[in-house]
Structures are given as C-alpha cells and as structure tokens.
Amino acid sequence: QVQLVESGGGQVQPGGSLRLSCAASGRFFSIDAMRWYRQAPGKQRELVATITVSGAATYADSVKGRFTISRDNAKNTVYLQMNSLKPEDTAVYYCNVDPVVPLVAGTQVDDYWGQGTQVTVSS
C-alpha cells in the first residue's frame, strides 16, 4: 500500500505564487513518473505536468513558463511551483505517482492518487 499526502494549496491573488508538495510513503522500491493534474468545477481532470525518474519534465501549454515541477527522490516527494497565477488556474490539484511495488515474484508499476488540494486564485 502507498500513501500520498498533499500540501500547499490555498487562496492567492492573481500574479501570486504557491508551492504544492506531495509526499509518498509505504511499501515500494522506487517511484517512476510523478505527475500533477487539476480539475476545475464542471471540467474534466487535466494533466498539468509530468516528471520522469531522471528529472525530465513536460507541461501543459497553459502553464508553460509559469509552473515548475520537481522531485526529491530521497524524500519520495514531488513539488509544483506555481508562479504568475491566474484565476483560470483555480482548481483542485492532484498528484499522481507510479510506484514500483514488490510482488511475490518480481515487481510491478502501480498507480496512486493524492487526495487533492484546493488552489483558488482570486482578488
């Protein structure tokens, strides 16, 4: 079993910054890709950013140049630094990770989600 704890959400004025964190714990050998998604009211969940185990990052066009995803493999934690926030960034943000978990014979890559953290950008 893998547990994810998110933190860092809140309310901020347009142009402000927030930093989200998502820490993984439990029974796994390592974590492959780590991602941040978001879901605004009445909209589908969308992929915001992905970071591989080697640190390669990709972003949705809507956040490029404003958001930065990073990870600390020693702490099994992924971060999302959000700058120049806009009202349209308002959403619940979820982390999603791919832990390598043990099996009776071998390993497999699983998929886990955080509980979500609210980000509200409003004046």
**Beta-strand segment tally:** 12
Helix and strand composition category:
mainly beta
Question: Could you name the ranges where pLDDT drops below 50 across 5 or more consecutive residues?
Answer: none
How many DSSP H or I helices? 0
The coarse overall form would be elongated
Give the overall pLDDT as a whole number: 96
Query: What is the rounded distance between the termini?
Result: 40 Å
Order of helices and strands: EEEEEEEEEEEE
Which percent bin holds the helix content? under 10%
Task: Please indicate the percent range of residues in DSSP E strands (runs of 2 or more).
Answer: over 45%
Radius of gyration: 15 Å
- Main sheet, how many strands, which sense, barrel? 8 strands, mixed
Architecture overview:
With 123 residues, the protein is mainly β. Helix content is 0%, strand content 59%. It contains no helices and twelve strands. It has strands at 2-7, 10-12, 18-26, 30-39, 46-51, 57-59, 67-72, 77-82, 91-103, 106-109, 112-113, 117-121. Strands 2, 4, 5, 6, 9, 10, 11 and 12 form an eight-stranded mixed beta sheet that branches. A four-stranded antiparallel beta sheet has the order 1-3-8-7, with no helix packed on it.
Per-chain topology:
Elements: E1 2-7, E2 10-12, E3 18-26, E4 30-39, E5 46-51, E6 57-59, E7 67-72, E8 77-82, E9 91-103, E10 106-109, E11 112-113, E12 117-121
Parallel strand pairs: 2-12
Antiparallel strand pairs: 1-3, 3-8, 4-5, 4-9, 5-6, 7-8, 9-10, 9-11, 9-12
